[in-house]
């Protein structure tokens, strides 16, 4: 139909033109003449001299010389840089309060792309093209021509050549449109931050342009509006676009190994000899190599200084009392780089405000940026060359309010064993040590290291109570890249003082694996493989991928946990939480002040109890995920032992199915409820409501479909292999929990009835949800008391192991078991309904109606 409509449109247009006394043919002829004239004018028009622009404005020399004439900005692009690849890095540099509170903060990198500039002398234009540099092939191979054609560049922008220099070796183009919000080709801040909408051009402008030897920075103020409660709210974002010149010859990439945790860049390699494409991953790392004159010394095992050390500068806005602690946290990594053969490889120092060459925006300077924000976090992003994985520059972003989280963690996890961690405010020295630990952790990310959440599993739980062991090992885990923050296992009588993680055995090994220099690529791969194989059976060198707390499969690799036995560690943790609860009012006492601090600490204590439960629960249906290679005798998937799963459920029965009254119903609630911070202000949570929600969350998660399917997979495996080893089944899980929830045959109190209702409702809701027939909005099964994370990384692979357990759940055994369990409960209720008091009988009747209605 489209051609007909177009024809009808042209026919009507012709009638209108004829009515005006002009035929379509005449109009077309005039249009052609006009186009030809314009084309001739454009071709004959000569660009003005760059000198003319310079006389009118401000001229700055750098990677591209820049010319600013009033509000117009020009880049002088030399022929020598045409065709070279640049990395465009876009970051937030200023945010208003509303965006700050939503989690978007200064320093966050939201968009990167690789671009190149090309000159078209005929059309007098500069074309800008972008490419995803994911594919490579040897220069002389026949397949290289096909790689170029199938992974080609795309045009994203074009500029008119406004001027040129005398010998035509450089041209000037006006670049306002790509930085003032009129075009999204270089910077699409609204889409990439999730704000959406469009930039208001009349309320946006280019604020500043800086040019340096290796990069150009353009700062802009871009305004949009967001609708908040029916009202349009103006939001102006300060954005910084950084054009970084990439090395002409990329660094020799290092191929990733799943047994060592590095951030990676995806890559596809083609060559003529292949039978299939190589799907590779390059680790991200700095280019670190010995000076030419030191190569022989280095290869002979002597420590040498690198050709180019990694230098971090402390943001001048950092409060003075924390600067040296942050510097110490950086320098703690020296020992790891020495294991890789380099001394003085990393340097941290305060920026000299009088140094004319220093600028935070200069890509030659990596800066630890201090952000005034209510956000309690820190992060360590890097600018990475996607062609090789080379880290060009790193910026650690340190949010001021991270100290709030540190203060709470130390009080709750170490208050019972450390008097310095009990006050409403710590000494600068005590807080400074915590800041040093966070600095070390974040700097580790800027070296390319990912979280190693499995590291703490290497230590036996009882060893964490040993002063001798913790002093010798230097803390809570073999890696500072784990979230093994503080020793909550040690008891007051143990005398343990080394309670925070330090640079450990794994960290030194990982840095050596990533940074030891080899002169030949083929030899490098052989030696790196040998290094991993040497340690692959030693738990001290184990790497455990970070998992989502919503779906933890491998219980070894969890955030905030300690030791090799989550049940035992959590039992010790509970003992210390009881001590904290008994002292909350004393530790937060301030004369003539409200109890709000006590309420917040109380809420955090309940959150820690919930964290321990989740650590334990991960063992139920848990699978140890390994990364085996041929001939190493490891299994890829190993179910957690039946004894451990049974022990984990027993813990949940004792500490969750039986709501701990010492935690929820104590003298604290005479003064304050647990108080949660929220955007609307402090949010007070009543004990019964909070206990009910927390318990429901655990029950719902314990009988999560995927957990039950993992148990079924394990059972099927043992049946098919006819193994003699014991395994834990879905029936075992239901029997063990039901026997606890319905153990009381006499009259029930409110908490007993609450637990039974939670159990039944979780089964009903999850079963109905599977068939999409539920009309009941169940409580969010995810705890609202999750301990906050300390750092955030855009490139962190949250689910590196994509294992499908949940396909076609509807025809699995999950629903069969849940409905059978509801039938079992019906039989119990029927037997007991006439042997209890009136309130318990009413409760049983209610449960019976709910179950029968669900089962139809």
Automatic annotation (TrEMBL):
Keywords: Hydrolase, Metalloprotease, Protease, Signal
Residue ranges, annotated region (Disordered): 26-47
GO MF assignments: metallopeptidase activity
CDD domains, A to Z: ZnMc_MMP_like_2 (cd04276)
Domain EcxA zinc-binding, first and last residues per copy: 424-746
Record's keyword annotation contains Protease: yes
Signal peptide interval: 1-24
InterPro entries assigned: DUF5117 (IPR033413), DUF5118 (IPR033428), EcxA_zinc-bd (IPR032534), Zn_MMP-like_bac (IPR034032)
Domain (DUF5118) ranges: 47-95
DUF5117 domain sequence ranges: 107-291
Protein name: Zinc-dependent metalloprotease
């Amino acid at each position: 139909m489209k051609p007909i409509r177009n024809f009808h449109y042209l026919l009507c247009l012709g009638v209108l033109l004829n009515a005006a006394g002009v035929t379509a043919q005449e109009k077309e002829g005039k249009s052609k003449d006009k186009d030809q004239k314009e084309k001739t004018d454009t071709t004959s028009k000569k660009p003005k001299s760059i000198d003319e622009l310079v006389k009118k404005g401000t001229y700055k020399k750098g990677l591209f010389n820049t010319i600013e004439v009033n509000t117009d900005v020009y880049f002088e692009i030399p022929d020598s840089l045409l065709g070279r690849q640049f990395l465009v890095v876009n970051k937030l540099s200023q945010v208003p309060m509303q965006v700050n509170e939503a989690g978007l903060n200064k320093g966050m990198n939201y968009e990167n792309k690789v671009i190149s500039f090309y000159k078209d002398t005929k059309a007098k234009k500069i074309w800008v093209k972008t490419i995803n540099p994911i594919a490579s092939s040897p220069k002389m191979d026949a397949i290289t021509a096909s790689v170029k054609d199938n992974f080609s560049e795309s045009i994203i922008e074009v500029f008119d050549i406004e001027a040129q220099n005398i010998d035509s070796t450089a041209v000037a183009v006006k670049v306002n449109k790509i930085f003032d919000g009129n075009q999204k080709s270089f910077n699409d801040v609204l889409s990439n931050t999730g704000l959406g909408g469009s930039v208001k051009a009349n309320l946006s402008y280019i604020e500043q342009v800086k040019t340096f030897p290796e990069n150009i920075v353009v700062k802009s103020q871009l305004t949009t509006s967001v609708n908040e409660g029916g009202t349009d709210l103006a939001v102006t974002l300060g954005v910084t676009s950084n054009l970084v010149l990439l090395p002409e010859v990329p660094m020799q990439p290092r191929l990733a190994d799943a047994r060592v945790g590095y951030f990676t860049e995806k890559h596809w390699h083609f060559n003529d000899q292949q039978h299939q494409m190589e799907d590779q991953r390059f680790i991200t790392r700095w280019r670190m190599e010995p000076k030419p004159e030191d190569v022989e010394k280095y290869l002979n095992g002597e420590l040498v200084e690198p050709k180019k050390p990694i230098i971090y500068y402390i943001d001048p806005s950092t409060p003075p009392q924390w600067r040296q602690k942050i510097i110490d946290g950086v320098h703690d990594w020296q020992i790891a780089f020495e294991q890789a053969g380099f001394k003085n490889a990393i340097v941290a120092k305060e920026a000299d405000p009088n140094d004319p060459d220093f600028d935070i925006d200069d890509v030659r300077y990596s800066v630890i940026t201090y952000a005034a924000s209510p956000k309690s976090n820190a992060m360590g992003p890097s600018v990475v060359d996607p062609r090789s994985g080379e880290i060009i520059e790193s910026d650690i972003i340190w949010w001021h309010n991270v100290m709030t989280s540190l203060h709470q963690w130390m009080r709750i996890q170490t208050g019972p064993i450390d008097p310095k961690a009990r006050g409403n405010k710590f000494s600068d020295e005590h807080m400074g040590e915590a800041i040093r630990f966070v600095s070390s952790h974040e700097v580790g990310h800027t070296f390319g290291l990912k979280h190693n959440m499995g590291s703490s599993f290497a230590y036996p739980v009882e060893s964490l109570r040993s002063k001798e062991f913790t002093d010798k090992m230097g803390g809570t885990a073999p890696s500072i890249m784990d979230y093994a923050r503080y020793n909550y296992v040690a008891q007051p009588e143990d005398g343990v003082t080394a309670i925070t993680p330090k640079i450990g055995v794994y960290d030194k090994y990982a840095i050596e694996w990533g940074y030891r220099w080899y002169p030949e690529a083929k030899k490098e791969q052989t030696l790196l493989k040998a290094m991993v194989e040497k340690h692959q059976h030693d738990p001290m060198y184990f790497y455990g991928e970070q998992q989502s707390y919503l779906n933890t499969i491998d219980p070894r690799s969890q955030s905030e946990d300690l030791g090799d036995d989550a049940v035992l560690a959590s039992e010790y943790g509970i003992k210390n939480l009881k001590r904290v609860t008994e002292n909350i009012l004393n530790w937060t006492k301030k004369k003539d002040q409200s109890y709000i601090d006590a309420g917040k600490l109380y809420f955090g204590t309940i959150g820690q109890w919930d964290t321990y439960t989740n650590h334990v629960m991960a063992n139920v249906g848990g699978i140890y995920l390994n990364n085996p290679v041929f001939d190493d005798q490891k299994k890829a998937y190993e179910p957690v032992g039946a004894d451990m799963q049974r022990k984990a459920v027993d813990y949940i029965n004792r500490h969750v199915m039986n709501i701990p009254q010492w935690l929820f119903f104590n003298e604290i609630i005479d003064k304050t409820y647990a108080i949660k911070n929220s955007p609307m202000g402090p949010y007070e949570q009543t004990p019964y409501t909070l206990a009910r929600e927390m318990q429901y969350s655990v029950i719902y998660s314990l009988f999560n479909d995927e957990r039950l399917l993992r148990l079924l997979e394990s059972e099927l495996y043992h049946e098919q292999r006819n193994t003699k080893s014991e395994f834990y089944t879905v029936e075992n899980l239901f029997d063990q929990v039901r026997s606890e929830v319905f153990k009381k045959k006499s009259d029930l109190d409110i908490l007993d009835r609450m637990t039974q209702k939670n159990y039944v409702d979780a089964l009903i809701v999850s079963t109905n949800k599977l068939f999409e027939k539920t009309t009941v909005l169940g409580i969010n099964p995810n705890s609202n008391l999750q301990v906050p994370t300390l750092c955030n990384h855009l490139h962190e692979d949250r689910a590196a192991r994509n294992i499908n357990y949940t396909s076609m759940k509807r025809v699995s055994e999950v629903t069969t078991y849940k409905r059978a369990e509801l039938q079992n409960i019906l039989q119990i209720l029927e037997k007991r309904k006439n042997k209890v008091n009136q309130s318990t009988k009413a409760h049983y009747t209610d449960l019976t109606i709910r179950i029968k209605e669900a089962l139809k």
